[in-house]
């Protein structure tokens, strides 16, 4: 029997990058996985790949900032697979700009996707996890920027710090219903989200793209190495299969030592 047989996971932003690898790893461990993303074609492609490999999966169109879409999507998953046991709140974007040029509309968009999205998906999932105190686990995709700041990333750093508060509150409220909560905090991972920033940061900081990688992205790591999607997905697997609430309300840095807590 696989570790997550009989469990159902919802992974937001799983049509790409980190979320996509998490979906594959959870499915391989036996979970039925809902790939919830703005990009339905991408979500369906991931679901089809999982199904082709013998796993259980479904693609769900979901804008995590849309309360009705979130509630409908999570309820659809519970109806399809019988429950929601694992929520990985992972959908995210990046917009870089110094504060004096940061558009208010961009600030609101960043906070909406990272924080409103985390809140709305949590609230929708808890309805199922709290039923008969069956319990579950919610993991938020934070960042080393949940603990550290970088220039140009005011909204991102603010939002990622905010997730620590939500997660710790849920750890306290959820305990009596057998719900645990964590934040995973990756360093830089080569995904479309990061690749887009390299030329943008080079232009804004007046340095080369190689310097953005070696100085800005990897300069504070212990070994100059990017974190990988596999590193993050294996951390998710460890936490989802951990047997007790000895681990709850924590934040886990997966960053080649960029930030040490
Ligand atoms: P990515 O761009 O590869 O994937 C993000 C996914 O989120 C995309 O499929 C996109 O369609 C989806 N998405 C965006 N807005 C959405 C919305 N409103 N509703 C639903 N889905 C939406 O990015 P990634 O690098 O895999 O990032 C995933 C998460 O990891 C983000 O929260 C990001 O902040 C975090 N993170 C990334 C890094 C990194 O270096 N890549 C480091 C630390 C944390």
Automatic annotation (TrEMBL):
Domain of life of the organism encoding this protein: Bacteria
UniProt cross-references to Pfam families, sorted A to Z: adh_short
Molecular function as annotated in GO: 3-hydroxybutyrate dehydrogenase activity
InterPro entries reported in the protein's UniProt record: 3-OHbutyrate_DH, NAD(P)-bd_dom_sf, Sc_DH/Rdtase_CS, SDR, SDR_fam
Biological-process GO terms, alphabetical: monocarboxylic acid metabolic process
Family: Belongs to the short-chain dehydrogenases/reductases (SDR) family.
Protein's name according to its UniProt entry: 3-hydroxybutyrate dehydrogenase
Organism in which the protein naturally occurs: Pararobbsia silviterrae
């Amino acid at each position: 029997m696989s570790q997550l047989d009989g469990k159902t996971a919802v992974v937001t932003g799983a049509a790409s990058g980190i979320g996509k690898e998490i979906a594959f790893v959870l499915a391989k461990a036996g979970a039925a996985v809902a790939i919830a993303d703005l990009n339905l074609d991408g979500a369906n492609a991931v679901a089809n790949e999982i199904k082709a490999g013998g796993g259980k999966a479904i693609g769900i169109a979901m804008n995590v900032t849309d309360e009705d879409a979130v509630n409908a999507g999570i309820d659809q998953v519970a109806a399809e697979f019988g429950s929601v046991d694992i929520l990985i709140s992972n959908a995210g974007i990046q917009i870089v700009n110094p504060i004096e040029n940061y558009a208010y509309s961009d600030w609101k968009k960043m906070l909406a996707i990272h924080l409103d999205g985390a809140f709305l998906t949590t609230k929708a999932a808890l309805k199922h996890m709290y039923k008969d105190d069956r319990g579950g686990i919610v993991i938020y995709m934070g960042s080393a920027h949940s603990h550290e700041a970088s220039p140009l990333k005011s909204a991102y750093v603010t939002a990622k710090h905010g997730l620590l508060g939500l997660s710790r509150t849920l750890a306290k409220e959820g305990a009596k219903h057998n719900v645990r909560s964590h934040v995973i905090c990756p360093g830089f991972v080569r995904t479309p989200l990061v690749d887009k920033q390299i030329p943008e940061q080079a232009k804004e900081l007046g340095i080369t793209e190689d310097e953005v990688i070696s100085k800005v992205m990897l300069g504070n790591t212990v070994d100059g190495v990017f974190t990988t999607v596999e590193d993050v997905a294996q951390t998710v697997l460890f936490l989802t299969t951990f047997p007790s609430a000895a681990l709850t309300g924590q934040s886990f840095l997966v960053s080649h030592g960029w930030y040490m807590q």
